[in-house]
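Re: beginner question about structure tokens

> Can someone show what the tokenized structure looks like for a real chain? I only ever see the sequence side.

Sure, here's an example I had lying around. Input first:
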Amino acid sequence: MPNGDGTAAAKAAAEYLANHGLVLVTAESCTAGLIASHLAEVPGAGRVLESAFVVYDPKSKQRCVDVSAETLDRYNLTSEPVALEMARGALRHSDANLAIANTGVADDADPAVKPGTQCFAWAFREGNRTQVFTETKLFDGNRNEIREAAADYALRRIAHYHRRFKP
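And the corresponding structure tokens:
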């Protein structure tokens, strides 16, 4: 369970990234930069955090991280296909070798999606090989608790998916 400030997850993630030669770029929607922000609070984060895209609006998802209009129309903003395209696009626009993407809802603004629904993607790149893992998770709490829990979860899952990466 998240500790509320992302510190433990960020420290563990920074250590893991450094020990495995991973450099992160994020493409964040619902978390609005919290993943990158929590990691940036760790001393030495500049070695493992390259950049962060905050792409809240659908048009910014298209413009900044190459999410296709077709994917947005077909699957909804809160979907694994959108998270996948966000992660791939973030990698294309960076020199990082790991991208984390997050899109979801933290309140009842979208009646088609249950509040707390978060879609994630972790994309790993080595040479010309990229592999993306996606996952949807439902978090409880108020708006800020959901966003914090999602950022914490995204950082905690890096090692899990990195171990499954087959370059």
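Each token stands for a local structural state, so reading them left to right follows the chain. The radius of gyration is 14 Å.
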